[in-house]
Specification:
Strand order of the largest sheet: 1-2-3-4-5-6-7
Number of helices: 8
CATH topology: TIM Barrel
CATH architecture: Alpha-Beta Barrel
Distance between the termini: 9 Å
CATH superfamily: Metal-dependent hydrolases
Helix content: 25-40%
Order of helices and strands: EHEHEHEHEHHEHEHEE
Bound molecules: zinc ion
Length: 273
Amino acid sequence: MMTNYSALIDMHTHTDNSFDGNHSPVYMCDAACNKGLRAIAFTDHCEVDAYYRDNGERNVRQAFFEISKARSAFMGKILVLNGIELGQPAYDIATAEKIIASQKFDVIIGSVHNLRNKQDFYYIEDFSKIDTESAMKEYFDEILTMLQWGNFDILAHLTYPFRYMFAKNNITEDINKYKSQVDEILKLAAEKDIALEINTAGLRQPINRLSPEKETVMRFKELGGKLISVGSDAHYAQHIAVGIKDAVKTAAEAGFGAVTLFQKRSPIEIPIV
Ligand SMILES: [Zn+2]
Ligand SMILES: [Zn+2]
């Protein structure tokens, strides 16, 4: 039988409850059904280090409520998972724990979008003005610190800054420069049964690559990694599941027989077929 890599799930998407999202959960569910998905996780942003400034408590409650409504409306058609993408949780662990305890989330994504007291890599206009190598070292250190805390299910877009370094200044970074740090990250994620995400957003951006790429997914397997998550990081309904087939194929080629869905924060393996 030919594998068509259609594990029809998307574990990382944003609705208009994210500051940079565009479509309601119901509209996103409708699009996901039309694309034939079996499950979708909504993982709206919550930047933990800006939680009090950005009225985080209200936003998290509102997103959870609206996703719950969409889940009821689409019951029997698609499995809707109520998640959250926590940015920089290790910068304020007490607040991160409070957010996690505030709702019955299915899945928590852990992300680092910015270094401490710095802006999101997304907003940095000119990377030629910064030392990208030391920024990347600091970034991977922060990922490691987040993993040492570890109260999350999916490690998001491991090479996040690469997207913007390439888009803004045509800088191509090589993950092998950071091998010892990346190995430590992958080992700790494996040990804690945290899923490594293969994020497909980069396929829609100038860098045109998965995050991380296949060699890193293979290394994760070598270092004992068991769980792989696939996510489009869609901020528009039309981007749901885009690139998921490539991500699933990459997981399969790296030796994984399944991708992981999280429900009530427990992993469920979805075989790759
Ligand atoms: Zn993110
Ligand atoms: Zn995201």
